[in-house]
Amino acid sequence: MHWEVVWNNMGYFLLGRFPDGPVGGLALSILLAVGGIFFAFWVGILFGLMRLSKRWYVRIPSIVYIEIIRGTPLLLLIFWFYFLSPILFHRPVPEARSTLLAFTVFTGAYCAEIVRAGIQSIPRGQMEAARSSGLNYTQAMTYIILPQALRNMIPSFVNQFVSLTKDTSLAYIIGVQELTRAATQVNNRTLNAPAEIFLAIAVIYFIICFGLTQTSRYLEKKLSYKTSGMIHRKETDLLNEDLSVPS
Length: 247
Known about the structure:
By secondary structure, the chain is mainly alpha-helical. It has ten helices and no strands. Helix 3 packs antiparallel against helix 8 and helix 4 crosses helix 6. The longest helix has 51 residues, at 194-244. The N and C termini lie far apart (84 Å).
């Protein structure tokens, strides 16, 4: 066993050549995942709301985008943006940026479905009550529906973040210096500890994803408990109101 190869290169696995060079390894993987889920969140909000629109010319483009992207492998999207970005922007685009763009477009389609499901989980009476109070559709969606729906979406967004964190390893194929490529470079240089290197990389991915999964479960339980408490208090208030009405 050659575990000393892993320990001697742990800094490279975690940070790449930083600070003597650009950030790489696990740090770059996390940056790609965080950036991807951040931008995909806003893409998901936009296209999720578009899909719920009653206007067909707003709803149809959203459906086309979501269905096409969800039916396309992420690896293929990475290739598309890697080769098409220089043509679209008329200049070379760094591999990490084109990968981030692919992650944003790909994850945005899934976030749009999360947003759609989250909004549809809110009782329709909420919108009707908001409209009857004088709010227009945009105001009702912004101040009444979305805040409630987003709270319900948090566990799903965390799960999507876990999935994207693992998918960052696909960026290796176009030369992005993320964790998997860093491990491959060390393995090609040493040639005597492939099992130890890739086992260590698997453990690192597991620790990150397991921590995020546990966070998702905690948030789901906490939000479920809070929602149940709100419902119970509401029922208690209604019961007290009924009892206070004189016969």
